[in-house]
Amino acid sequence: MSGRFLYLQNAWGGPPSSLRQVRGHRIDVFQQYDTERLDWSGYDAVLVSMSADQIHLGEMTNKISAYLDQVGTLLINSHVTRPYLPELRRYEPMEKRGRAELEIHRDNEHPLFEGISAQQLTLRRGVAGFYGRGSNPPPPGALVINSVGPDHVAVDWLYERPAGGRIFSHAGVELWAVLMLEGPEQGMPVIQRFFDWMASTSRVTA
User: Fold this and answer.
1) Would you place residue 141 in the very low, low, confident or very high pLDDT band (cuts 50, 70, 90)?
2) Is 5 within 8 Å of 26 (Cβ atoms)?
3) What is the per-residue DSSP string for 41-84?
4) How many CB atoms lie under 10 A from the CB of residue 96?
5) Which residues contact 62 (CB under 8 A, 6 or more apart)?
6) What was the pLDDT predicted at 90?
7) DSSP state for residue 173 in the 8-state scheme
8) pLDDT digits over 110-132, tens only?
9) What's the pLDDT band for 134 if we cut at 50, 70, 90?
10) Where in the chain does DSSP place strands (E)?
11) What pLDDT band is residue 101 in, cutting at 50, 70 and 90?
């Protein structure tokens, strides 16, 4: 099933190159500040980059919430420093303890991460700590997929909103970039799966 996605761009040089390799889906790239007047209703998901202007997103809270109410999906990268939705809380870095704190755990299996283990996410190019070192604390009822450290601090979570729509949060560097650190052979199948899953489970009607 082909999907349609909106990437909110807020950095020089265009979106991550991996997104140009996604097959079978349309990914529209707009500067974040130009999307305030754009109709989001036909997009299966809106992708927020790690370079997003969160002050500006806060000025668009009503627009984002209305999009979610229309059963859209919001995918958030990086640290929430200025919560721009009622479901979001400010990023909380982990207490520094050593190597054990950087271990990624799979708390709940999910099709988004089928084929890539928590151990593979822990070590990127043989180094631990790239994937996540803290949390955008999930709202009650969210499904925690991947966590980090002995306290299982939520890194990736998916929240199905009672009012409709869903939010996926990744509390680390740009997800598309970190998945590609081991090369496209490992990274692109996972990235492709993200878009295939978002499209096939979308309840957005064009």
Assistant:
1) very high
2) yes
3) TT-SEEEE-TT--HHHHHHTHHHHHHHHHTT-EEEEES--SS--
4) 7
5) none
6) 98
7) S
8) 999 998 999 999 987 778 888 99
9) very high
10) 4-9, 26-31, 45-48, 73-77, 92-93, 104-106, 123-124, 127-128, 134-135, 143-148, 153-160, 166-170
11) confident
CA 2 to chain centre: 19
Q: Which two tokens stand for residue 88?
A: 């979001």
| pTM more than 0.90 | yes
Name, in order, each residue with C-beta under 8 angstroms of 20's C-beta and a sequence gap of 6 or more: 27
Which pLDDT does position 206 carry in this prediction? 66
Amino acid at the residue 197: W
- Confidence (pLDDT) at 126: 75
In which residue are the tokens 């305030």 written? 36
The answer to whether the CB of 143 falls within 8 A of the CB of 159 is: yes
Q: Measure the CA–CA gap between 15 and 147, rounded to whole angstroms.
A: 26
For residue 78 the two structure tokens come to 């990086």
Rounded to whole angstroms, the Cα distance separating 74 from 65 reads: 10
